[in-house]
Amino acid sequence: MDSPNYHGGVATEAATVGANSDTELPKSSSPSKVNEILQLIQNDDVELKIEAAKEIRRLTKTSQRYRRHFSNAVKPLVEMLRYSSVEANEATLLALLNLAVKDETNKISIIHAGALDPILSFLRSDHPTLQEHATASLLTLSASSVNKPIISAAGTIPLLVEILRDGCMQAKVDAIMALYNLSTHPGNTSLILHTEPVPCIVDLLKFCKKSSKTAEKCTALIESLVGFEEGRIALTSEEGGVLAVVEVLESGSLQSREHAVGTLLTMCQSDRSKYREPILREGVIPGLLELTVQGSPKSQSKAQTLLRLLRDSPYPRSELQPDTLENIVSSLISQIDGKDQAEKAKQMLAEMVQVSMEQSLRHLQQRALICTPADLPVTSNCTSEVSSK
């Protein structure tokens, strides 16, 4: 994933300028104008170079075509990152950030030109604005599969976790996105885990909007980390850790809820006797019930499997009590502490059964229409032509 809308008008992927984004260059950006800016960025005058960087940032903010035209500015811009001027550093970071957005070639060129070392030095600096811009740059650059192993091998992961722990809110958001990008490269999840990031991730997850992209990446990262026992212990040891995941399961986006139920299922499957109670204690049943009806197909399947694991015995008790979802949930409701929680679960179970009955009725009505057309007797044989849904 590339950088999301970056506050303060720094960089944007979602916003596009309709008519001018990738159509013919307007008069102000004629080839001669582009060449003039490229010449300025290679000038010896630092002030002129800064103005050129600012102009490149402005022109590449929403235009893919400008990013192509200014690809030759990557090398001189990277050289400017090593200047001692904070103004030059800021202007250059923002220009490179906009050049990299949605442009794989520029992402790779920026890293190959040597930008990583100075960007990491900005992460270590005490200058909050440089920290913030450097984190945003790493978020965008780490979206490239070519760059991921290079960025992680440079020792970036511990620095991003430090930003996640101590940075400003926007830097934290960008850091979690960058860490997620890096986690998709083989071997990086264990590297991330060794930096003990779970408390920071949980803290961010607690305070961000549960339906946000930030919550989605937090939960996705947690799901990866609980694949290791160290990650599972860290999550359950963190106060409110499991609860934060349950809250995403209840009110997150479809993708976030899928990551949340995947997290809890991984924990329960790894050691049911150890993690069943911590999960049940946070009132997970209503959210799981809702997922069995309204979640994605993958979420529905995971929710049903988790419900089976959460009851007293994960196996059918007897032939008289078949292993239906209703029976599984009924047995779970009897174990829930707290009247309000139990009543909510019972209500959701009733709604779930009602939805199931309505779906079955619609299915039967569809079959009746197919099997008994007006010109055929009711007794005619019918074949199953209704697709399963």
Reconstruct the topology from this structure:
Blueprint: H1 31-41, H2 46-59, H3 64-69, H4 74-80, H5 86-100, H6 104-112, H7 116-124, H8 128-141, H9 147-153, H10 156-166, H11 169-183, H12 188-193, H13 198-207, H14 213-225, H15 229-237, H16 241-251, H17 254-270, H18 272-281, H19 285-294, H20 297-310, H21 325-333, H22 339-371
Helix pairs in contact: 1-2, 2-5, 4-5, 5-8, 7-8, 8-11, 10-11, 11-14, 13-14, 14-17, 16-17, 16-19, 17-18, 17-20, 19-20, 19-22, 20-21, 21-22
What does this structure look like?
- By secondary structure, this protein is mainly alpha-helical.
- It has 2 domains: 195 residues, Leucine-rich Repeat Variant, CATH 1.25.10.10; 159 residues, Leucine-rich Repeat Variant (Alpha Horseshoe), CATH 1.25.10.
- The protein is 67% helix and 0% strand.
- The chain contains 22 helices and no strands.
- α19 packs antiparallel against α20.
- The two termini are 32 Å apart.
CATH architecture of the largest domain: Alpha Horseshoe
**Main β sheet profile:** none
Level-1 CATH class name of the largest domain: Mainly Alpha
Determine the strand fraction and express it as a percent band: under 5%
> What's the shape?
elongated
CATH superfamily of the largest domain: Leucine-rich Repeat Variant
> For the CA atoms, what is the radius of gyration?
27 Å
User: How many β-strand stretches?
Assistant: 0
- Which percent bin holds the helix content? 55-70%
Instruction: Tally the structural domains.
Output: 2
